[in-house]
Design brief:
The chain is α/β, with parallel strands linked by helices. It has 18 helices and 14 strands. The radius of gyration is 24 Å and the shape is elongated. The structure holds uridine-5'-diphosphate-xylopyranose (UDX).
Length: 449
């Protein structure tokens, strides 16, 4: 099928590459000429496992093309995805400017029936706004006879496993009331809809809300566990045992109940905020969403509280090694990352940071530039050198085993603040480490350091 994707950000690029891989002819359109030129040369603007070879292969085969020429893209695609950004407005609601501009452009240039598919995460009611925008622009050129439908088809991909998530979706939500649209979408996704039917068809508003409900439910699970970890700390319980104890109940499940130092990324914080705003605009008080957001904010300060408790509020003269800058492993994304709250507060209290992340070093430099109190180190070991203590903020695989002797010989004191519960408190105590984590009882170090 001929498909056009507007927006070569995370969602658009992954979706386009995966559809091309399945044999569809996909044209990617973006207004950023530099980005399009780089993509043509095989340079992927984001770090995402498996994406680069996929883009290169399909670009070379001609199944995946990149251009800034919107009219050409519109002529090409019978199905047109809108996957452009929806940054949060000042009041927290999603800014639909780019989505509506694409809608208008499609209407200005289309000359046959188009299936317009909303892929961006957009507030409930956006498909109707897109429909109005297209109708208005068609009317302006006296072309109301041209048919179109606006379909909601939310994505559920995770950064770091986006290609795999897209290749093997656990559900394909299609929001439309038109039979023809459902059939087109089924045809489009047929290569990904094997074994059992993963397509769930519903009205457009339900599809839009389903996306928010999914992310907010996941954010709620995490925040609930984060709150339990604080309680566990106070009552002397071990949150790891609690996690296993409740995860074994299939109604709860093992997924997304890992406590930590708060969720980050481009989706959860933005979507919780956007749904809160939608609810508020409707005169509702979103009590649970308010609590989720507030817990996440506190949780991002939880390890800092432990650091202040240990050292006092004046950290001048102290240096902390920080392992992990990305908001989670396998990405270079630092949007809403807990590491940022940590660093910014440590700096404010006078401390210096020696940081290492396997992928997000450039991103960190882009955000913070050169500053005296931040040293970006080439390896995890060199980040430790001369630091007073180690802080772990992201659960990268390479952080999961700790070479006790190496860490001890590099740090001034054998002291670790672990925001991801990567190590066992007993092992740490036996190795002579003072160890602070999230929701697990502290053990006195037993080996003389
Ligand atoms: C999320 C959703 O998972 C995905 O379905 C949606 O399409 C986009 O938003 P993503 O933001 O890429 O994906 O990351 P995810 O792996 O879901 O993690 C989100 C955050 O939650 C991270 O900060 C992670 O560290 C945190 N998290 C996750 C926990 O703190 N505990 C957990 O048990 C799971």
């Amino acid at each position: 099928m001929n498909v056009t994707v507007f927006g070569t950000g995370y969602v658009g690029l992954v979706q386009a590459a995966v559809l091309a891989e399945a044999g569809h002819r996909v044209a990617c359109i973006d207004i950023d000429e530099h980005k399009i030129e780089r993509l043509r040369q095989g340079h992927i603007p984001i770090f995402e496992p498996g994406l680069e070879p996929l883009v290169k292969r399909n670009n070379e085969s001609g199944n995946l093309t990149f251009s800034t020429n919107a009219p050409e893209g519109i002529a090409h695609g019978e199905l047109i995805f809108i996957a452009v950004g929806t940054p949060p407005d000042e009041d927290g609601s999603a800014d639909l400017r780019y989505v509506l501009t694409v809608a208008r452009t499609i209407a200005e240039h289309m000359d046959d029936k188009k299936y317009i598919i909303n892929k961006s995460t957009v507030p409930v009611g956006t498909a109707d706004k897109v429909r109005e925008e297209v109708t208005r622009a068609l009317a302006a050129r006296d072309a109301l006879h041209l048919e179109f439908d606006v379909i909601s088809n939310p994505e559920f991909l995770k950064e770091g496993s986006a290609v795999a998530d897209c290749m093997k979706p656990d559900r394909i939500i299609i929001g439309t009331s038109e039979n023809a649209s459902e059939q087109k979408m089924r045809q489009l996704y047929a290569p990904f809809n094997r074994n059992h039917d993963k397509v769930i068809v519903m009205d457009v508003r339900s599809a839009e809300l389903a996306k928010y409900a999914a992310n907010c439910m996941l954010a709620t699970k995490i925040s609930f566990m984060n709150e339990m970890s604080v309680i566990a700390d106070k009552v002397g319980a071990d949150i790891e045992s609690v996690r296993q104890g409740i995860g074994s109940d299939p109604r709860i499940g093992y997924h997304f109940i890992y406590p930590g130092i708060g969720y980050g990324g481009s989706c959860f914080p933005k979507d919780v905020q956007a749904l809160k705003t939608t609810a508020a605009q409707l005169g509702l008080e979103p009590e649970i969403l308010n609590a989720v957001e507030s817990r996440n904010h506190s949780q991002k300060h939880y390890l800092l509280d432990k650091i202040v408790h240990r050292y006092g509020p004046d950290l001048s003269g102290k240096t902390f090694a920080l392992w992990g800058l990305a908001f989670k492993p396998n990405t270079d994304d630092m949007r809403e990352a807990p590491s940022r709250v940590l660093m910014e507060n440590l700096w404010q209290m006078g401390a210096k940071v020696r940081a290492f992340d396997p992928e997000a070093m450039q991103e960190c430099e882009r955000i913070y530039g050169n500053r005296d109190d931040l040293q970006l180190c080439g390896t995890r070991d060199s980040a430790l050198s001369g630091a007073d203590a180690l802080i772990v903020a992201t659960e990268w695989q390479q952080f999961k085993t700790l070479d006790f002797e190496m860490v001890r010989s590099n740090l001034k004191d054998p002291l670790v603040f672990d925001g991801r519960n990567l190590y066992h408190p007993l092992d740490m105590a036996e190795a002579g480490f003072e160890y602070y984590c999230v929701g697990r009882p502290q053990q006195a170090p037993t080996k003389a350091s």
